[in-house]
Amino acid sequence: MKTNPPASRPTEDGLIARYFAPLAGHGADGLRDDAATLAPSPGCDLVLTADAIVEGVHYLPDDPPASIARKVLGVNLSDIAAKGATPRGFLLTLALPDNWTEAWLAGFATGISEAAIAFGCPLLGGDTVRSAGPALIGVTAIGEVSHGGIVRRMTAEIGDILCVSGTIGDAALGLRLLDGSMPNWGEHLGSAARGVLIDRYRHPRPRISLARSLRRHVRAAMDVSDGLAGDLTKMLAGGGRSAEIILSDVPLSDSAREALALDPGLIHTIVTGGDDYEILCALAPNQVDAFIDESLAVGIPLARIGTVVAGDRAPVFRRPDGSEHAFTTRSFSHF
C-alpha cells in the first residue's frame, strides 16, 4: 500500500456496495443495515473470537492483498477450529491509511471472498474507517458447537498424550526469508522449498475439518499462533502440569528439514516462531489411535510429540539422547 492515493475515491457506502456487499450472507441483508442477525442451529452454542492484524507487525507491507485477506480470516478460523467449532460467519473491520488504493482493495476483496467460500464462512457485516497510522484489519469470527461441546484450552490432565497437526515452523522460516536481507541458509535453499515456506507464512490453513474429531476425542486444544514452545506453556500453566516433549517427534516439512540441515540453529525459530496455526491438543492415551486415524481420513497428519507430566516448570524439550534442549525465548510475540 505504498502508492499515492488518487484524487477522488468512492465513498464508504460506495466501497461497501462495490467490494463487500456481494460477499455478505443472508443474515446481513446485503450489508444494507447496521447489524446482522444470526441464530445458532438447534442444540448448539455460538463460539466467538476476534483477532486483528496490523501492517508491519502481523504482515509485511509488500504482501499481496489477497494473501493478507486470507491470513486475517484464517487466523481467526484457526481459533474456531481449535474449539471444535464450525464457522458460521464473520465481521470485518478495515482501518485504511491515507495511501490506500482501489487496486489494493480490489485484491483484498478477491482474497477475502475466496477465503470465505473456501472456509464456508460468509461476511455478516463490519466497518470501514480511516487510519492515522498503518493499516489495521480486524475480524470477529463466529462459529458454533454442540451445546456444552466446546474444547477448552487448559483442561489437559497428567498422563495425557500431546499431539500436533500438520507441520511446525514453516511460517516462521517463511517470514525469515521475507523480512529484511536474505539469510545465508535461504540463499542455499532450493526455490521450491523457499516457495513452500513463504506460502505457509502468507496463507494459514485453519484445521476446520478436525473440529468433529476434536470434540469426540480431545481433552484440551488450542491453535499454535505464537510458537509451539510458548503456546504449550500457556496450555499447561497452573495446576501442577508440565510436559516432556521429544524434539525429534515435532513434525517438520521437507522444506523445513532442508533449511535445518543448512543451519541447525534454526531449530529455535522452528519451535518458538509464530504463525503455524496448527492444532495442539491433549488427549487420553486410549483416544490417540482413533484421533490419528480420523485426522488422516480428512487429509491432515497428526503427530504425537510428548506427554503431560506433573510439575510446575516449563515444558521440557529433549533430544534423542535424553538431554534437554533449552530455548532462550519460548514464544513469538505479535504485541
Write up what this structure looks like.
This protein has about 325 residues and is of the alpha+beta class. The protein is built from eleven helices and ten strands. The chain has helices at about 10-20, 65-80, 100-120, 170-180, 185-190, 190-200, 210-215, 230-235, 255-260, 265-270, 290-295; strands at about 45-55, 85-95, 125-130, 135-145, 160-165, 220-225, 240-245, 280-285, 300-310, 315-320. The strands form two sheets. The chain has a six-stranded mixed β-sheet, sandwiched between helices. Strand 2, helix 3 and strand 3 (about 125-130) form a beta-alpha-beta unit. Helix 4 crosses helix 6 (about 190-200), helix 6 crosses helix 9 (about 255-260) and helix 7 runs antiparallel to helix 11. It is globular. It starts with 11 loop residues before the first helix and ends in a 17-residue tail after the last strand. The model is unreliable at about 1-5 (pLDDT under 50).
User: What is the CA–CA distance across the termini?
Assistant: 22 Å
Q: Biggest β-sheet: count, sense, barrel?
A: 6 strands, mixed
From the alpha carbons, calculate the radius of gyration and give it in angstroms: 21 Å
Supply the number of helical segments: 11
The amount of beta strand, in percent, is 15-25%
Compressed to H and E, one letter per element, the order equals HEHEHEEEHHHHEHEHHEHEE
| Helix/sheet category | alpha+beta
- Stretches where pLDDT is under 50 for at least 5 consecutive residues are 1-7
Mean pLDDT value: 91
Fraction in helix: 25-40%
Question: Which helices and strands, and how do they pair?
Answer:
Elements: H1 12-20, E1 44-54, H2 65-82, E2 86-96, H3 102-119, E3 123-130, E4 136-146, E5 161-165, H4 170-178, H5 184-188, H6 191-202, H7 211-217, E6 220-224, H8 228-235, E7 241-246, H9 254-262, H10 267-272, E8 278-283, H11 288-297, E9 302-310, E10 316-318
Parallel strand pairs: 2-3, 7-10
Antiparallel strand pairs: 1-4, 2-4, 5-8, 5-9, 6-8, 7-9
